[in-house]
Amino acid sequence: MSEDDEYEGSYAYGNDSYIEPDFDWVVIDIYAVVAIVGLLGNASIIVVILLNRELRKSQINALIIQLAIGDFLFLLLTVPIKIEHEIDPFWQFGSVACKIYRFGETLAVGVCVYSITAFSVGRFLGIVMKKGERNFTKVLILTEWLTAIGIAVPTLFITTLDPTPSGLNHYCTFPHQTTASQVYVVFWACFLYVIPLGLIAYTNILVIIKLVQSTRKFSGEQVNRSLLKQFRIRRNRAAMFILITVSFAVFWMPYFVFRFWQILGSGPVVVNPARDALRQMHYYAAIANSCCNPFVMYMMSSKYRKALFCRLPSKHNAGVASANSIRSGRSRTTRFSLSVRY
């Protein structure tokens, strides 16, 4: 269920050797750049929220941290292995590392998927069901991690090292034709894509209906500023979550479809450039989504942007700090002179 599964069909192996195309180095460079950008973006979201008192108080931001952690783990665990396998498609790290890698990859995907699901369920409970945020956020976070771990655990038992025809090298993969692998990949696709996406769509539709009804109510009444501000915040959050959800549905679909077809497809694998390009593109889409999420948050929320800019070294921030220190020094001097005069 990872990129290694496709190497056997993407290269021609005689005695476990392969011809390395020039295109591979372009792929490696792209993976490296995208991974660095994504890791920095997701790390910045985590740090910005944790270091900002106002953002840290929000229970919704606790869920956003979980999504950033999931995206960060997915990039950190899978991209280096992906780059290594673009250079050498054989698994060199032993059976235990193979199982841990598969488990970590599936866990990271599960955390990403169920973080978005937790957003949607949390907003449904808060806006439609009128439940307080503090009543369910911790439960949602615990549930998403337990669910992700539960989905990932079977990979520890299914993943194997398949030997090459010569027996000199191995692939870290699922046995394609075993019943256990085929049953698990159906379970995997349903619980990491189909079912969460259906739940996300259902809860978001109800939230949108509720917000539209509130808009009509506000348009005909005189409301105070605080209530109007709260409504606008909810509306902006809804727009951000919908954009993240659509991005998830679009970018992860090739990933799940390709993996589903790879395990359940019958017949010999046809080696051709088109299939190899498809193999690359389905993984590009997945890592692109993990990279885009933090920038969607910065784009849709002025609070995140302000919190980030406050943490970045700049002339403006230095000037503000200098001015504050000067004013503080003048204040202390004035108080001292007044005390002397007295």
From TrEMBL:
Membrane among the record's keywords? yes
**What is the membrane topology here?**
Multi-pass membrane protein
Extract the CDD domains matched here: 7tm_classA_rhodopsin-like
Q: Name one GO cellular component term.
A: plasma membrane
Alphabetical list of SUPFAM superfamilies matching this protein = Family A G protein-coupled receptor-like (SSF81321)
Q: Which Gene3D superfamilies match?
A: Rhodopsin 7-helix transmembrane proteins
> Which cell locations does it reside in?
Membrane
The name of this protein is G-protein coupled receptors family 1 profile domain-containing protein
Q: Please tell me the species this chain comes from.
A: Patiria miniata (Bat star)
